[in-house]
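Run 4-hydroxy-3-methylbut-2-enyl diphosphate reductase through structure prediction, thanks.
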Amino acid sequence: MSPSGDASPSRLPGRPPPRRLPPMGRVLLAKPRGYCAGVDRAVVTVEKALELYGSPVYVRKQIVHNLHVVKTLEAKGAIFVDETDEVPHGATVVFSAHGVAPTVHEEAAVRELRTIDATCPLVTKVHSEARRFAREDYDILLIGHEGHEEVVGTTGQAPDRIHLVDGPEDAAGVKVRDPERVAFLSQTTLSVDETMTTVDALRERFPHLQGPPSDDICYATQNRQVAVKEIAGAVDLVIVVGSRNSSNSVRLVEVALDAGAPAAYLVDDSTEVDLSWFDGVETVGVTSGASVPEELVTGVMAWLAERGFTDVEEVTSADEHLLFALPPELRREMRTRERAAG
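Sure, done. The structure for 4-hydroxy-3-methylbut-2-enyl diphosphate reductase is below.
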């Protein structure tokens, strides 16, 4: 079984629960974990759109990268599509938290769609930086993973100026027009350490490299990575709850291993936890990605408790209190209806 998390379910439906592990085990539960402000805003946006406009509400791409969130919203009446041209003319569409290119807004306008933009404000910040650097005639080195929806959306802000750099090994091959007018931006869900390694490699080639006025890696990504680092050296195994297409969840597995965890696995929920991982394990670390509802962590904790891991300690590395307002399109509609009702 690979530590990257390609797990098999621990048992098939209908079989008796596996044996209890002796003796009482310990769990270090990382905090913060789970939903960040941007994810919470995006999920509530779809729920509020369904409440205001009724079903169906279309969502371009997964609103956030979590299988259970998507299925829950589908059950409430959301319809997920890959592209705008799949949305019926004049319907309501929500753009995901990962952001979209300006061309997507243009396509929606042609189809006369009612659009609600749930792009995380921290991603919107990166978009603004990309447009600013492009206006100032910089070549922009975007650190990120090819094909990720956030990277696609950011590249679309200045497609003639942005060059993707997928890790430090890509730094040597970057070609720019003027080595003295180069700037970097990054995908918000990357590993902080890996991103800085890439920035260092780029700076060796481009000593005049400019950066954004503040770090692009989102606060929630950083906090969850710090939290998993704090527990990684004190456990025999780390379980990260999150979907495999969630960049920040995948990074948590990598960070845990780099920080000294002997093993780390990514699971969507408790059905994917494998008993074979626990031979000789006395202490387990548990955390979750920024798009994971807490009920999925609770399910994993219950799985562990049933097998003797009942000594639980929550390890707090930061307190999060940030909240983002709902998209302005929704807030305007809510105010209009409140006035009409009043």
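The two ends are 60 Å apart (CA to CA).
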